[in-house]
Amino acid sequence: MNANRPILITGGAGYVGSHVALHLAERGERVVVLDDLSTGHARSVIGAELVVGDVGDRDTVARVLRDHDIDTVVHLAGRTIAPESVRDPLRYYAGNTCATHNLLACCAQAGVSRFVFSSSAAVYGMPASGIASEDTPTAPINPYGASKLMSEWMLRDLSAASGLRYAVLRYFNVAGSDTRGRTGHRTRNATLLIKAACEVATGQRDCIAVYGTDFATPDGTGVRDYIHVDDLARAHADALDYLRGGGESIVLNCGYGRGASVREVLRAVERAHGAPIPVVEHPRRIGDAPSLIADAARIRQVLGWSPRCDDIDLIVASALAWERSLAAERG
């Protein structure tokens, strides 16, 4: 058993959060999950204690920090669908920015010393080169990205005024599921490409929509940097080790540094499925970047992070296996 004090993971019953909680628990950490289960699922919490509650509720957060003697927080709770944020921006500023403000205020009062924050490549907007390093100017184009960036700013400023040290992890396109099939993405009507395509392959939706086939990319479809959720979970553990070792506050991209197009992803799904899947092509959507790929050199250099699942076929195979298990579970 790890001798460190318990770690609080907000949003630990959700897609990424459940993988992070499982990975930390497996290496002997004591993990407490705080999740309101609005999109998460209690059955996804494995090897950790689940407290059902809202990160935006100050009394709940203060009680959890106090009762469990928390000195390290991994903050993943929040809303994550960019198009939805355009339709309902205040919901995103409340659920992401304001809730993070509440959490940080409670952490400051409780003397939390380390904080790992789940941010997003959406803070970069649409960089002209299609490649974003941590030094690329931030220019979010939707309230989701803006809500994440505002949370980063609050964390930065609190750190400057206190002893709190942090690691901000800017996720690129998270995909796949636990390679042993223990947890995965349970959210219905998800918008993530690989999950949606695997749902088509397993008969859970009729077709996959492709938005834009005339981008200035090799095959005309958008290119993204897909990172396996298991590698992302390990990045959180590595960030925690870095902070425990006295590392200074840092911002890090989480991606592989290379991209796959929508058509390449769909071909990978068809390979794994063993048959074509129905595709419907639509015009590109306003605000969709042709390409967004991480410059991921810093996380490798600073944390020594070494991905193990950097293969689109492996990512898709794990996602498809999970969707098949869900389809069987749902009957």
UniProtKB/TrEMBL annotation:
Pathway(s) annotated for this protein in UniProt: Carbohydrate metabolism; galactose metabolism
Entry EC no(s): 5.1.3.2
Top-level taxon of the source organism: Bacteria
GO biological process: galactose catabolic process via UDP-galactose, Leloir pathway
Record SMART domains: PKS_KR
The entry's keywords: Carbohydrate metabolism, Isomerase, NAD
Subunit structure as annotated in this protein's UniProt entry: Homodimer.
Protein's recorded name: UDP-glucose 4-epimerase
Organism: Lysobacter enzymogenes
Lineage: Bacteria, Pseudomonadati, Pseudomonadota, Gammaproteobacteria, Lysobacterales
Gene name of the record: galE
